[in-house]
Predict the structure of Simple sugar transport system ATP-binding protein.
Amino acid sequence: MKLELRGITKSFGSLVANDHIDLVVESGEIHSLLGENGAGKSTLMNVLYGLYEPTSGQILVDDKPVKFSGPADAMAAGIGMVHQHFMLVPVFTVAENVALGAESTSFGGVLNLAETRRKIREISDRFGFDVDPDALVEDLPVGVQQRVEIIKALVRNSKILILDEPTAVLTPQETDELMDIMGQLRDGGTSIVFISHKLREVKAVSDTITVIRRGKVVGSAPPDTSTTELAAMMVGRAVNLTLDKADATPGEETFKVTNLTVMNDAGQRLLDDVTLSVSQGEILAVAGVQGNGQTELTEAVLGLQRHVLGSITLHGQELVGKTVRQVLDSGVGFVPEDRQDDGLVGELSIAENLVLDLYTRAPYSKAGTLNKAFIAKNAVDKVAEFDVRAQSSQDAADTLSGGNQQKVVLARELARPLKLFIASQPTRGVDVGSIEFLHKRIVAERDSGTPVVIVSTELDEVLELADRIAVLFAGKLMGIVPGKSSRELLGLMMAGLPADEAQQQLLEQHGPGTPDATTEPTSEGEPS
């Protein structure tokens, strides 16, 4: 089935999210829509799926104009969509989720799932999905849940499948499996629109790549186009994708987490007996699929978690039991994973946001009175130093782009001498050009002698920045491995294999010459 978009424009008031976009997806091809977060990719697909009505423009399926008043119309036309955040009911079975919204009932109104089960088994067998129709969704790994979403679309006879950032919640192995599935679907005649900002994945799976920037199509490219060229199309200028980082020269081990357990109000362990340490002048990256204890780890350090057991020390000073203010005053710089909710006060000016954790001390205030002249000068200096693109440092923080908002948070946290720097998802929603800048600043902080902890679900970022990598799964530490470890090793650990078992599995698969499939001892001398 062929899909064509002609002149699609979608406006929200004065904001033009999609600006006269033309796009052709041929029958049986994987067409990638590549662009930064906020470029307008998801908005365009929501228009195509009937969630938004276009302000202007036309959608054609097999050269015939169509109009969608909702997703049901799009599905009836043969278009299915797998959203970045799955639309599944955890307590339902696979069959119940697949039937939801297209239920068939027997006499008396009783739900008839027999036909749904048959279709699930048929599709699962055809594509090797290995999905049990009677399994509860909440018991399935994330990668299998995504297959359920794909099955939902195929059961509804989708000939065009939209995958919106489908690898965001997958391990490397699950990503490879998804790409294999995409190839099978394409070979079976299904057209796929693959939305992503990850250059490596787009190049690996695409037949055609269309790049969108600031709501406009800026060009198309074949999959053999270099990552440097694609990045330049995404950003609008040349970008250095390789971080120039010298090897770490670790000093004293000043930050230690010992037997740390974090529980929720119901007593469930969200972080389970985690022990790790970070030395001065090194970056420890915490890797794992989102939701495996990373957030609880950083929040426990900052004093935001209520039910904490174990010890967290910085230069021998215990942090467990201290308030957030006391932790910050002890020399901890913290970049939260959600800058808009936790890192900034959007309606305050850039200048005011730059002193949110400094305004109580000199020279920012004196005797309880703000030194507005110094705060203004500080803002001008930091805006220049961190290349924050704004008309004025008095602009509200919520008028900035995501990348510039992140620069403001980073500038504030690095504005004082630190004994520990923690950055959670430091480049989420940030354009490639800003990523280049932010990574350099993080490495510079390491090189100044500060222990640095990075938490990221982006494996490319982890491998780019880390001197050592700690992997969390289901709240447990799977091990700590060198920063140059292989993706395959990290992927097995992210899926729940302890480091020594993951290493052994790779050795059995590839032999003793397996590169980078090594672990290192923890600070206590036990295998990671």
The longest strand covers residues 15-25.
